[in-house]
TrEMBL record:
Top-rank lineage group of the source organism: Bacteria
Name of this protein: Lipoprotein
Organism: Faecalibacter bovis
Length: 328
């Protein structure tokens, strides 16, 4: 006869191991012209989304000076009942060659523009700012100084994105001076350099780069992809990338479906302002719900604490292809 205490402890252990992880869902909003339709509003409500990470603008070097580009237009904070988190993408080259004073000035200018956009959009309060930058060893000192300065002058919580290589090579590329980051589980490959893999998310590659994810010393949330794009190759092997593209965009076009998302152009035509000639190849890459579920399962094995999932990005064109409740 089994010891009742042993049976109780065993059942408690099995229950704790099988307990579902908690993954509240948030979204990125990455379109330059702000507009949300009723389907997107209903999705946000039904998923009980708390946070929208909204891209306010990018920063890049222009005439050797950092300048904002692609500032969001027509943003109205009243459209969604969520916490908006201003998000700024900054190119890595922006930080190259800057003095400490120039880095601090950049932080001041970024903070000022964020507040100006918030004011014009009637975003009366926000508690966090997120910075998206694929920093490298050569820029980490300036980037980390920028983060410290922005956190100080904004008086806000500050988070940043984290790429896979920055996890695997953290000793070389450093750990930012932050309390929270978002692991980007997408864009694992350069779409211009791979033919036989999915450049949006190659799970085998992600697993290799994230073997020591459990040792990363900062609290992490996770960003997962629900977008697709087209990689167009011409007769000379040159490649163009068309963002926000799906196989539905090829319906009625002069193409032959070769399978596995590969299409061959059979006659000249325009596609998203690109002129395509007969013989061009089109590779449409997307991520299945099954791959996302497998990715989440792997991350659960590496991250001991519950984390939020941020989907990139809020757009009915892509959200309609998934049952996102399955990914909580």
């Amino acid at each position: 006869m089994k010891n009742p205490i042993y049976t109780f402890l065993l059942s408690l252990f099995l229950f704790s191991c099988s307990k579902d992880r908690n993954h509240p869902i948030d979204f990125y909003y990455w379109r330059s012209n702000f507009s949300v339709n009723e389907t997107e509003k209903n999705l946000v409500q039904n998923l009980e989304v708390e946070n929208i990470y909204i891209r306010f603008f990018d920063v890049d070097k222009k005439e050797n000076n950092p300048n904002p580009i692609g500032t969001i237009k027509n943003f109205k904070s009243s459209e969604l009942a969520v916490n908006y988190i201003p998000t700024v993408f900054i190119t890595n080259r922006t930080f190259q060659g800057l003095s400490s004073d120039e880095v601090k000035k950049l932080a001041s200018n970024v903070n000022k523009l964020i507040n100006e956009i918030a004011l014009s959009s009637e975003l009366k309060s926000f508690s966090e700012i997120q910075i998206d930058c694929d920093w490298t060893k050569s820029t980490k000192a300036n980037y980390f100084l920028f983060l410290e300065e922005l956190k100080k002058i904004s008086n806000k919580k500050l988070s940043a994105t984290l790429r896979l290589h920055q996890v695997k090579f953290k000793e070389r590329e450093g750990v930012p001076p932050l309390d929270k980051m978002v692991l980007m589980c997408y864009a694992t490959e350069n779409p211009s350099e791979v033919q036989d893999k999915n450049s949006i998310l190659d799970l085998d590659l992600a697993k290799d780069y994230l073997q020591n994810l459990n040792d990363y010393p900062i609290q992490l949330d996770v960003a997962l992809p629900i977008y697709s794009w087209a990689i167009v190759t011409n007769h000379l092997g040159k490649i163009k990338l068309i963002n926000s593209f799906s196989e539905d965009d090829l319906i009625g076009k002069p193409v032959i479906n070769k399978g596995n998302g590969i299409y061959e152009v059979t006659d000249d035509f325009f596609l998203e302002k690109f002129y395509l000639s007969k013989g061009f190849k089109i590779k449409v890459e997307t991520i299945s719900e099954d791959v996302l579920i497998e990715t989440k399962s792997f991350l659960d094995s590496k991250l001991k604490d519950d984390y939020r999932i941020i989907f990139y990005h809020l757009d009915e064109k892509f959200t309609q292809n998934y049952n996102l409740n399955n990914l909580k």
